[in-house]
């Protein structure tokens, strides 16, 4: 029964990820939260373990696509490398902080981050679609800031992919959307692996390996793999949605999600 429920929630989550063209903490974290909440006689894991489960899913879904990006344009690899190198110290910092902060503080931090992105997405101006050849001159300092924000957000909340990186790179840094997609995939794959390893190690170092039961690992993997596979299959088959409408719907979803997480923290 547990496995069936987690599979169904994973499939539904995968469809949402495919519709909005993003996949990661903004969908997997609340999906895992809901799944553990609605299944009877199942202990709810700490928020840190839910983030670890989200990172597992991101790695599974992004790694095959990231390998293809590596053989792409030099400009994409260079920009992604700058972001990754600036993110690594903050991933280590975030992994340490995640073991020291309480469950409620992490949930509130997640909700504030998601709400800020949601409001920006909802009322912000859609970036002009450009070809990768028409790259504007951008400030390297902005890439440093984006890398730092994405790195610490990835380790603390499982966020740092397209939900956070795409609006920052397009609407703030000024990179073309076509370039940002590949940069985001490569960045997310590498930083998620690092975040997963460092956060898991930090958690086990503080709480011990017995704090992560085989049942929790199995259920998280079932939901994550179901979502990742569904997203891959559905991404090319769903009806195309107007970009402006997609942006507004995504912004509304993120704001509603932030309210849900706040409510869960206060219960």
Automatic annotation (TrEMBL):
* Classification of source organism: Bacteria, Pseudomonadati, Pseudomonadota, Betaproteobacteria, Burkholderiales
Which is one Gene Ontology cellular component term of this protein? plasma membrane
Name of this chain's protein: Probable membrane transporter protein
Record keyword Nucleotide-binding present: no
Superkingdom classification of source: Bacteria
Alphabetized, the UniProt keywords read:
Cell membrane, Membrane, Transmembrane, Transmembrane helix
Q: Which InterPro entries match?
A: TM_pro_TauE-like, TSUP/Inactive_protease-like
Q: What family, per the record?
A: Belongs to the 4-toluene sulfonate uptake permease (TSUP) (TC 2.A.102) family.
Keyword DNA repair in annotation: no
In what way does this protein cross or attach to the membrane? Answer: Multi-pass membrane protein
- Major location, coarse class? membrane
Q: Which organism is it from?
A: Polynucleobacter brandtiae
């Amino acid at each position: 029964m547990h496995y069936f429920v987690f599979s169904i929630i994973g499939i539904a989550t995968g469809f949402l990820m495919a519709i909005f063209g993003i996949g990661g903490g903004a969908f997997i974290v609340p999906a895992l939260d809901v799944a553990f909440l609605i299944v009877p006689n199942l202990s709810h894991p700490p928020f840190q373990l839910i983030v670890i489960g989200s990172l597992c899913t991101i790695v599974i879904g992004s790694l095959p696509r990231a390998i293809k990006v590596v053989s792409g344009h030099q400009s994409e690899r260079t920009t992604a490398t700058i972001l990754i190198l600036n993110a690594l110290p903050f991933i280590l910092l975030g992994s340490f902080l995640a073991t020291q902060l309480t469950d409620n503080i992490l949930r509130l931090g997640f909700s504030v981050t998601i709400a800020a992105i949601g409001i920006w997405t909802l009322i912000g101006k859609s970036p002009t679609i450009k070809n990768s050849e028409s790259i504007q001159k951008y400030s390297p300092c902005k890439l440093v800031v984006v890398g730092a924000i994405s790195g610490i957000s990835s380790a603390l909340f499982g966020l740092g992919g397209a939900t956070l990186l795409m609006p920052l790179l397009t609407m703030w840094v000024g990179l073309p959307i076509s370039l940002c997609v590949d940069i985001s995939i490569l960045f997310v794959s590498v930083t998620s692996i690092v975040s997963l390893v460092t956060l898991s190690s930090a958690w086990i170092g503080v709480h011990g390996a017995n704090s992560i039961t085989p049942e929790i690992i199995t259920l998280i993997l079932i939901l994550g793999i179901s979502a990742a596979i569904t997203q891959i299959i559905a991404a090319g088959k769903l009806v195309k949605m107007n970009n402006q409408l997609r942006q507004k719907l995504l912004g509304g979803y993120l704001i509603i999600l932030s309210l849900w997480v706040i409510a869960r923290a206060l219960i």
